[in-house]
Specification:
There is one protein chain. With 379 residues, the chain is α/β, with parallel strands linked by helices. It folds into 2 domains: 242 residues, Aspartate Aminotransferase, domain 2 (3-Layer(aba) Sandwich); 132 residues, Aspartate Aminotransferase, domain 1. The strands form 4 sheets. Strands 1-9-8-5-4-2-3 form a 7-stranded mixed β-sheet, with helices on both faces. It has a 3-stranded antiparallel β-sheet with strand order 12-13-14. A hairpin with a 2-residue loop joins β10 and β11. α3 crosses α7 and α9 packs parallel to α13. It is globular.
C-alpha cells in the first residue's frame, strides 16, 4: 500500500546527515530540529501555531483538553472513520455522538450533524477522510449558530486545500478552532515512527496546549494545568522537515495516480471512483483539493471480499477502510443509536476497497493493478 523505501531513497542524502547532527548533539527531545520543523510547517500552512506532539491520537485528545470540554459534554463526529477519533472522546469522559456520512464524499453529513445537536453539544469533529476536505463552510456556519467548537481531524488531509464558497482557498487543518494531524509513516507527510501535531490560530488556546503536551508545565516543576507527556522527538522532526518541501509534489504524484485509476475505471457500471478529482479539476486552476491519502472504490454488485482475496493472490495489497461502523464496535455501542440513521455507513463498510496509493506508483504498476481489478469484476 505504501513504498516508504522508494521514497526514502530519494531523500536519504538530506535525512542521514541530519540524523547524525542530532546524534552528535544529543538534543533528542524538543531540540532545535523540532523547533525548525514547527516553524516551517507554520509557514507552509499559514497558521499561527503548530504544536508538535507524540502521535495523532494524542493530538486529538490534547486539542479537546485545551478547549476545556467537561465530562458529559457531547461531541459529534462521523461514524465512518478510524476509531481514534471517537476513542479520545470516550477517554476524556465526553459523550461521543456518531452520525452518518455523505454517500459521495464519505465525509460527515452536515444535515445529520444538524439533527444531532442538543443543548449538551459542545463540539464537532469533521474528519477529512481519505484526503478530501469535509464541507467546512457549512460546518463552521452551523457551529457559529450553536456556539460550538470545531476540531478538524486532519490526519489524512495534510497539504490539501479547501475551496470556500467565495472561491478562496485555505489549507485543511487551519479552518476550525483547532486541528490535529498524524505523522504516522504511511501518512502523506509521515515520519519514521510516531508523531503528530496540533494547529490553531488562537493564541490563548495555543498557550494552553503547549503546557498540556509537557506535563502541564510552562516553567520546570511548576504544573499549571493538567497535562500529559506527548512530545515529538528530534529524529522524527528531521524526517518531517526533509519531507515537507516535497509535500506538494508527493500529493501531486498521488493525484496523478488517481487520475490513471479513474481513467481505467471510467464509466464502469459496478465501480464508483472517488469524489473530488474531476470536480476539482473543473473549478480550480490546479487540482489541490484532494490529497488521496487513500484511493477508495465503492463497488456495486461485486463480491468485495472475493476481490480482496484475488488482489492478494496476485501480490497486490489492498485495504478495507473501514469494515465495521464505529456505532457497532463493542467499545462504542450505545442504545440511543438507530440503525436507520446510518444507512450510508452500513452500506459503505460492505462495498469499499482501497487500492495502493503512494508517491512511487508507476504506470506499469497501476496498469497491472487496474487490469487485475477489472479481470475479477468482469469475469
Amino acid at each position: 500500500m505504501v513504498d516508504l523505501q522508494g521514497q526514502y531513497a530519494k531523500i536519504k542524502d538530506v535525512i542521514n546527515p541530519s540524523f547524525n547532527e542530532v546524534l552528535e548533539s544529543a538534543a533528542f527531545i524538543n531540540g532545535p530540529k523540532v523547533h525548525q520543523f514547527q516553524k516551517n510547517l507554520e509557514e507552509y500552512l499559514d497558521v499561527k501555531h503548530v504544536i508538535p506532539c507524540a502521535n495523532g491520537t494524542d493530538a486529538l485528545q490534547i486539542a479537546m483538553m485545551g478547549l476545556g470540554l467537561e465530562q458529559g459534554d457531547e461531541v459529534i463526529t462521523a461514524d465512518f472513520t478510524f476509531a481514534a477519533t471517537v476513542e479520545v472522546i470516550a477517554l476524556l469522559k465526553l459523550t461521543p455522538v456518531l452520525v452518518d456520512v455523505d454517500p459521495i464524499t464519505f465525509n460527515i453529513d452536515v444535515d445529520a450533524v444538524r439533527k444531532a445537536i442538543t443543548p449538551k453539544t459542545k463540539a464537532i469533529v469533521p474528519v477529512h477522510l481519505f484526503g478530501l476536505a469535509a464541507n467546512m463552510d457549512e460546518i463552521m456556519t452551523l457551529a457559529k449558530e450553536h456556539n460550538l467548537y470545531v476540531i478538524e481531524d486532519n490526519a489524512q488531509g495534510i497539504g490539501g486545500d479547501y475551496r470556500h464558497n467565495d472561491g478562496s482557498k485555505t489549507k485543511t487543518g487551519v479552518i476550525g478552532h483547532v486541528a490535529s494531524t498524524s505523522f504516522f509513516p504511511s501518512k502523506n507527510l509521515g515520519c519514521y515512527g510516531d508523531g503528530g501535531a496540533i494547529f490553531t490560530n488562537d493564541n490563548d488556546l495555543a498557550h494552553t496546549i503547549r503546557g498540556i503536551v509537557n506535563h502541564g508545565m510552562y516553567k520546570r516543576y511548576h504544573h499549571d494545568v493538567v497535562g500529559v507527556n506527548s512530545r515529538l522527538d528530534s529524529l522524527q522532526a528531521v524526517v518531517l522537515d526533509a519531507k515537507l518541501p516535497h509535500l506538494d509534489s508527493y500529493n501531486n504524484a498521488r493525484r496523478n495516480a488517481a487520475r490513471q485509476y479513474n481513467q481505467a475505471f471510467k464509466n464502469h457500471p459496478k465501480i464508483t471512483t472517488p469524489s473530488g478529482l474531476s470536480d476539482c479539476d473543473s473549478i480550480c486552476d490546479t487540482c489541490d483539493c484532494h490529497v488521496f491519502h487513500q484511493y477508495t472504490l465503492n463497488l456495486k454488485d461485486v463480491d468485495r471480499d472475493g476481490l480482496v482475496a484475488h488482489l492478494n493472490e496476485n501480490g497486490i495489497p489492498c485495504g478495507v477502510y473501514y469494515p465495521i461502523p464505529l456505532h457497532k464496535q463493542k467499545a462504542y455501542v450505545d442504545e440511543r443509536y438507530n440503525e436507520d440513521d446510518f444507512t450510508v455507513t452500513n452500506q459503505l463498510v460492505k462495498s469499499v476497497v482501497s487500492l495502493p496509493m503512494h508517491t512511487e506508483l508507476d504506470d506499469e504498476q497501476i496498469g497491472f493493478i487496474t487490469k487485475t481489478v477489472l479481470d475479477f469484476i468482469d469475469g
